[in-house]
Amino acid sequence: MLEFDKTPSYQSVRDAATQLRGIAIRTPLLESMALNDRLGARLLLKCETLQHTGSFKFRGAYNTLSRFSPAQKSAGVIAYSSGNHAQGVALSAKLLGIPATILMPEDSPAIKLNNTRGYGAKVITYDRYHQSREEIGEKIAKDGNLTLVKPYDNYFVISGQGTTGIEIAEQLKERDIRADICAAPTGGGGLIAGTSLALRELSPRTKIYAAEPAFFDDTSKSLATGERVENQDGHQSICDAIVTPTPGKITFGINRRTLSGGLVVTDNETRAAVRTAFHYFKCVIEPGGAVALAALLEGKVDIRGKTVVAIASGGNVDPSLYSEILQEGDQ
Amino acid sequence: MLEFDKTPSYQSVRDAATQLRGIAIRTPLLESMALNDRLGARLLLKCETLQHTGSFKFRGAYNTLSRFSPAQKSAGVIAYSSGNHAQGVALSAKLLGIPATILMPEDSPAIKLNNTRGYGAKVITYDRYHQSREEIGEKIAKDGNLTLVKPYDNYFVISGQGTTGIEIAEQLKERDIRADICAAPTGGGGLIAGTSLALRELSPRTKIYAAEPAFFDDTSKSLATGERVENQDGHQSICDAIVTPTPGKITFGINRRTLSGGLVVTDNETRAAVRTAFHYFKCVIEPGGAVALAALLEGKVDIRGKTVVAIASGGNVDPSLYSEILQEGDQ
Predict the structure, then answer these.
(1) Is residue A64 domain-resident?
(2) Which domain of life does the protein's organism represent (chains A, B) (predicted)?
(3) Is residue A4, in this structure, part of any structural domain at all?
(4) What pLDDT is stored for residue B331 in this prediction?
């Protein structure tokens, strides 16, 4: 039986990179000379929007599902997710011939619901304000003997997401660049945890920051206090991909050692970053995927004269919301 | 003095690749498993939207300007362009320390006018319905002893654009793929001419097509008749980047030998392709940059069961038009 509760390491991330070779896309690390001029900094954008399924989540999902035993494969996988992990699991399951059941909030963006179904997964929706996805998910898993793959607190998932960090380090080295700062959008913390394991080893002088939406800054607060804290109820954000209630247990165990802190942005700052990515990078980033770019553009940490990396973690945004954001302002 | 009127060859394209190494971005060749499933074909998208200045035009411009003599460099460059060649010349001139004057239609997309100015070029606008850019350009060039770099009928420009084709061939080879078809958006014909020189040599079994908007299908008609024909007046298209009146003399001399034909799409088909790129590739493509993708998606040549490459040649679209296109329909 696979052990999902172990603590990932640089070695497990490296091992995931081997597992994903030729399967995951080595996404580009883009930069815009015009934007660099405007910022007085060198900003590199790691475009996980161009990953299979439009987000980094494919990495962790494939790394996990590809290690299922034959019995696990035939019984199937279950996952719960606001939409990007759902798509990552659904496509990985399809590629590996594993039946997939995905539990998604009934108010997930239509693009995420449709894409997940499009990969052949069985989608079950729930009311995220009144039902517990953990409870529903565990019941379905138990009843059907399915393997539950959580979106971040999973050894193989975190290790897979960390391959993003290995690629960043390699791409920096190819161009003979040293990065002062790297920031990543942070929900449960799987992407930043895995990425930080890679960068601590391969680029030890790079400071790593978790970027979060206002009112969903549980990782930032937890890093500041040293303990996992929960967000207060009653708030909303357009960043549907990363509005998790509290840091993961495994992820925070890593992030408390590896991160320099958290950066918090308003939804309006995120919307401006989505427009900046449209203008300078021609990349479609969903709101939750743009918070790290937003934090660096808004100077939540001083970037002047520095070389900084923002991970654009996903691009699954409904066209109506994207159009609304584009029309709001000049950027 | 540089000779701009020579006929490019595979060797001159190869030489341009050397000149551009480490300067131009090696843009990704993307594919979407979900779209491939839908199409029953394998479609690869060469994303020149991610090139410096948001279009392939940087390649040809830099290849040309970087060969100027010291006297040419200090006197400066002049170019006329609907906007993408303008930006390519402006950024290349900036990188090389060459003063640049750019003649652009007064109704160019704001994003193209602003970006060109942003790279430090002096922009002069003209009325493209009543004035001849060729005449104005040649007068300014003569008066100020500036070197005129035409947008396509130039040996070094065509050779530079052809480096797109070298990269496509290399990227196909890395993945052990053979392409049956490659299509590129075609205005004056520089991109497809250069690309075809590369592919004829490196991927000789790939059929190459010029894609054009309806009513601006001068290359398609010229290929069919064997002679350079002009478009009829009185039509409009949203594809501002490629609404040229007639094929270039040098470019058509190449294209008549290397291409299998032309593919013509309506503006509505182009708009649908822009939406498809948003959904499946998270890439912002401008209308003129999406006509090759549109032609393949619409089956203007049969792609079922085949491996096909569409070049997405540019991404400089005003947010208002892009929003309008996104909101029009489901794709």
Answers:
(1) yes
(2) Bacteria
(3) no
(4) 45
